[in-house]
Specification:
The complex is a heterodimer of chains A (113) and B (110).
Chain A lengths: L4 E3 L2 E4 L5 E6 L6 E7 L6 E7 L14 E5 L5 E5 L8 E8 L6 E3 L3 E5 L1
Parallel strand pairs in A: 2-10
Antiparallel strand pairs in A: 1-3, 3-7, 4-5, 4-8, 6-7, 8-9, 8-10
Chain B lengths: L3 E4 L2 E5 L4 E7 L5 E7 L5 E7 L5 E4 L2 E6 L4 E6 L8 E8 L6 E2 L3 E6 L1
The chains are: A mainly beta (113), B mainly beta (110).
Chain lengths: 113, 110
């Protein structure tokens, strides 16, 4: 596709359920980032994939959060046993190695009730 | 640890006026980004600044970078209502994630 695609665009889940968020980066982009943005707040780094290197997981807030990426394709962010504080917009971005611009998807708005 | 600070965090300005948003960062970086975010929307890339003295302009917005001072500015000329949004700067070192400032919420009023 032409841009970074995220799905679903909106997700409402019950507290304690697991959710999986998907990110399709721009084709050929080796770098992929996940960020969380709470209402009215800035962007909080979660995890970063760069090619075949080990991902930088330093931003994951707890062991309930995990993410995977197969090669240079789709990434999934999984949140287990969701809590109300997980409610936020989850943004994915991708960038071409050696490239400069990082392009963001439209985000997934997660609401935990 | 790379830290990025923006100021002001909130800015209300009259149409037709000029103003500057500042972005300071704590360590030498490779690239500096400016993004715009409209309410309920994702981030739109405005500028990427790569080198000391870099200046880029698009319409009423002009961004500059001083790597020695570790400072970037986003200057708004003759503001119009359509510029109302939140503006973020973000900084990268080598192969690290983008580190964002907290954003500047700009409101342009008549």
């Amino acid at each position: 596709g032409a841009g970074v695609s995220q799905s679903p665009s909106n997700k409402v889940t019950e507290k304690g359920k697991d959710v999986e968020l998907r990110c399709d980066p721009i084709s050929g982009h080796t770098a992929l980032y996940w960020y969380r943005q709470r209402l009215g707040q800035g962007l909080e780094f979660l995890i970063y994939f760069q090619g075949n290197s080990a991902p930088d997981k330093s931003g994951l807030p707890s062991d309930r959060f995990s993410a995977e990426r197969t090669g240079e394709s789709v990434s999934t962010l999984t949140i287990q046993r969701t809590q109300q504080e997980d409610s936020a917009v989850y943004l994915c971005a991708s960038r071409l190695t050696g490239g400069t611009e990082a392009f963001f998807g439209q985000g997934t708005r997660l609401t935990v009730v | 640890e790379l830290k990025v600070e923006q100021n002001p965090l909130f800015l209300s300005m009259q149409e037709g006026k000029n103003y500057t948003i500042y972005c300071n960062y704590s360590t030498t970086s490779d690239r500096l980004y400016w993004y715009r975010q409209d309410p309920g929307k994702s981030l739109e890339s405005l500028f990427v600044l790569l080198s000391n003295g870099a200046v880029k302009q698009e319409g009423r917005l002009m961004a500059s970078l001083d790597t020695k001072a570790r400072l970037s500015t986003l200057h708004i000329t003759a503001a119009v209502h359509d510029l109302s949004a939140t503006y973020f700067c973000a900084v990268v070192i080598s192969s690290t994630p983008l580190v964002f400032g907290k954003g500047t919420r700009l409101s342009v009023i008549a």
